[in-house]
Specification:
Blueprint (H helix, E strand, L loop, with lengths): L12 H9 L4 H13 L1 H17 L7 H24 L5 H9 L29 H14 L6 H13 L3 H14 L4 H16 L5 H15 L5 H12 L3 H14 L3 H18 L2
Length: about 280
């Protein structure tokens, strides 16, 4: 791009990559910056690209050519995801998040998020730039930039932040959502999962807060399995093994999805095995 060019439409991937990497001249950089400031699509693309490049810079073993091919592929994924979100603008944000999370072979949250399919829990976060990770980060950025302060948006924002590793931000967003809609069991359930994640990272009193949020969800919707599962996880971390076992039994009894039922039963068996030692 030269300084004399103007924009009739969004800049292409190469220009946006050059903008993020600081390789444009002053005039071109200012023009791209003005466009990005007014373009929701390009804000999401630039945000996702910035995160992608930050990780790519750590991969010093790549040749310059291989590195650029990886960058171009990453930008293409981000652009595709953003365009898909705009095309399916009426689709619920939480549904998008569930679909994106389903692309990962493991879940990064020990607790159970409402409506999410089962995947084994893994504390180890992969450094690979998967399609799901890039898209989740871009979606988290889109939701964070949203000017809609309603409970639904805050709920989705909290879940997106949680899935991308921002436990503190997730707790804040989900707590705000419960204040706007204190009767939504799903929000209380997901706040419980967020507190479990935050507690695992050292948040003081996190497991007690996770248990309290799960209890609220159970009181609102006693038929749901996910809050019982989260109660079990919180109680187990608090050392209340008998109470945790009862919660896991309740989760398994209420569960329709085989994967979640099997994990609840496995955790129950592990508790029994540990008690027998």
């Amino acid at each position: 791009m030269t300084s004399g060019e103007s924009f009739d439409s969004c800049p292409d991937a190469a220009i946006l990559a050059s903008f993020v990497e600081g390789r444009l001249d002053t005039v071109a950089r200012e023009r791209v910056a003005r466009h990005v400031a007014d373009c929701t699509q390009c804000v999401s693309i630039v945000a996702g690209t910035t995160l992608f490049l930050r990780e790519e810079r750590r991969r010093s073993r790549l040749s310059a050519f291989s590195r650029w091919r990886g960058i171009a592929a990453g930008i293409a994924v981000i652009i595709s995801a953003v365009i898909l979100w705009q095309t399916l603008g009426r689709e619920h944000s939480l549904r998008r998040l569930r679909n994106l999370a389903a692309m990962s072979p493991a879940r990064v949250v020990e607790g159970r998020l409402d409506g999410f399919g089962h995947a084994p829990f893994s504390e180890r976060r992969s450094e690979e730039r998967s399609r799901a990770t890039l898209a989740l980060r871009a979606e988290a950025e889109r939701l964070t930039a949203s000017e809609k302060p309603d409970a639904e948006t805050l709920h989705a924002r909290g879940v997106a932040l949680l899935l991308t590793g921002d436990q503190d931000g997730a707790v804040r967003a989900l707590t705000a959502a419960t204040r706007l809609d204190s009767g939504d069991a799903a929000v209380w359930n997901d706040l419980s999962a967020a507190w479990i994640a935050a507690a695992s990272r050292g948040a003081h009193g996190g497991f007690h807060k996770a248990l309290s949020a799960a209890n609220r969800a159970v009181a609102l919707a006693p038929e749901l399995a996910s809050p019982q599962f989260n109660r079990g996880v919180a109680l187990e971390h608090l050392g209340r093994r008998d109470d945790a076992a009862r919660a896991y039994r309740a989760a398994a009894a209420a569960e329709d999805e085989p994967g979640w039922r099997e994990e609840a039963l496995q955790r129950l068996n592990d508790l029994a095995a540990n008690n027998g030692r």
